Amino acid sequence: MYGIDFGTSNTVVSAGEGADSRLVDLGGGETVLPSLMFFERDCPVSVGAAAIRDYAAALEKHRRARDLYRHFRLFQALKLALKDEYFEGSNIFGNYVKAEALVGLFLREVKRRADASLGVPDGSVVLGRPVRLSPRPGTEGFIQARFAAACAAAGFEEVHFVMEPVAAMASLIGGVKGNTLVFDFGGGTLDITVARVLDGGVDILANDGVDLGGYILDEDLSRGRVIRHFGYGGHLRTMTGRRLEIPGWITNQVASFYALPLGDVVKAKETIQDMIFEADRKNALKGLVEFLDRNLSFGLFEKIDEAKIALSSSERASVAFAVPPYVAFDEKISRPDFEAMIAPRVAAAEKVTLGTVAAAGLEPGDVAHVVRVGGSCRIPAFVRMLERHFPGRVREGEVFTSISAGLIAGHRLGLGCDGAT
Fold first, then answer.
1. Would you call 34 exposed, middle or buried from its count of C-beta atoms within 10 A (0-12, 13-18, 19+)?
2. Considering its fold, how many domains does the chain have in total?
3. Most buried residue, 30, 58, 91, 96, by most Cβ within 10 Å?
4. 279 and 368 share a domain?
5. Which residue range(s) make up the domain with 248?
6. Which residues contact 6 (CB under 8 A, 6 or more apart)?
7. Contact between 268 and 253 (Cβ < 8 Å)
8. Do 261 and 338 lie in a common domain?
9. CA–CA separation, 33 and 375 (whole Å)
10. 230 and 285 assigned to the same domain
């Protein structure tokens, strides 16, 4: 049986039959696989680090071509595509691929690598999922069914689900004891579980979660410092002499980084080109058209994400990017600047954390252990928030692997959520 932590940013696989499970080498010693998938015409699909290398090579190979979406596509944050009930699929080189099939391709390659690593195929999986798949009542079952369909498309015959922070809690058995809070802050969601950890099990007291993750913080950074270089805040002059602000959805193309239907990119390019003549910042909009035409979204995302990560250990970072000959910038960002941008996110995290403790029937002082996991859990502003309420009881867990490590154990302890509605 596999335990797959299919994350917004990274995917990790564990395997086990007995009480213990172990991480699976997904090729070349890679146990943490970036959740990326790359398509290029007449080439095999690639995933993970190989997808990043192939994307960079394709940019160079097609540097003189136009409309590079016709030549290659890089999909990131695939998990968000399944969570978005309105995202049905995408057109890839003239073929429409449903969201479940798209994610199924990625998971099929993950399964192939895991089978090869272990030397024997396995058709059963415990898949991690956020506490809340949707803010809309009545849609949980529908979205979980999409995840199950993606697993089936990948070749899994038996599919079970465990909430991600519950899995992380299960991985703590034997390491902590008493009232424990897992603060699971990943790329797409923040999920909280409060439980009483016992000698051989876990008594779950409360779970909650919100759509707040590292991708949202990347968008905050982009909106705060980057989108102005692509026309945000600019104006159009109408035939009657009125000045209208450029619509926000136009410059949102450089803030929302996960995969969009190709039709949205085409529509954006056409709209921007129609606006350029009346715009007061023509070069910025020309740069935005070139940005979309050159399929540069992931390159900018990498720069922004690197700056966000750097600000967890350094006081300053920068985002330097260029779309010659129209746009070039080098934004210097201090940690206080970044923390001012994300202050509402810290407040939201504080609210859901304390709300989950209260739902468990506890006060913050009753919590003996707070364990931080997930790639975003190292951001100092969130660490300080936790220390304020749980002083001296906050520690970092296995940031990238704790969920996968506890999925199979969580399922065997009866902590699953197969019947979500």
1. middle
2. 2
3. 58
4. yes
5. 176-397
6. 35, 79, 107, 110, 127, 128, 147
7. yes
8. yes
9. 13
10. yes
Tokens of 85: 């009930």
β strands within 298-402, DSSP E: 316-323, 327-334, 369-373, 394-396
Identify whether residues 163 and 247 lie together within a single domain: no
Q: Answer yes or no: is 368 within a domain.
A: yes
DSSP state, 176?
Answer: B
Q: Are residues 272 and 164 in the same domain?
A: no
Instruction: Looking at the structure, tell me whether residues 212 and 285 fall in a common domain.
Output: yes
Which pLDDT tens digits describe the chain residue by residue (421 residues)? 999 999 999 999 999 865 578 999 998 888 999 999 999 999 999 999 999 999 999 999 998 888 888 899 999 989 988 998 888 888 888 888 999 999 999 999 999 999 999 999 999 999 999 999 988 878 899 999 999 999 999 999 999 999 999 999 999 999 999 999 999 999 999 999 999 999 889 999 999 999 999 999 999 999 999 999 999 999 888 777 788 888 887 888 788 766 555 556 777 788 888 889 899 999 999 999 999 888 898 999 999 999 999 999 999 999 999 999 999 999 999 999 999 999 999 999 999 999 999 999 999 999 999 999 999 999 999 999 999 999 999 999 999 999 999 999 999 999 999 876 6
Q: What are the distances in angstroms from CA 337 to CA 110, 305, 315, 375, 387?
A: 39, 15, 10, 21, 21
Q: Is residue 269 part of a domain?
A: yes
| Phi/psi of residue 390, nearest 5 degrees | -130, 60
Instruction: Examine the domain organization and report whether 393 and 406 are in the same domain.
Output: no
118: amino acid identity, one letter: L
Residue 236: CB atoms within 10 Å: 19
Query: What is the biggest distance separating any 2 CA atoms in the chain, rounded to whole angstroms?
Result: 75
- 111 within domain boundaries: yes
In this structure, are 139 and 280 located in the same domain? Answer: no
What's the CATH code of the domain at 349? 3.30.420.40
Calpha distance 360→195 (Å, rounded): 8
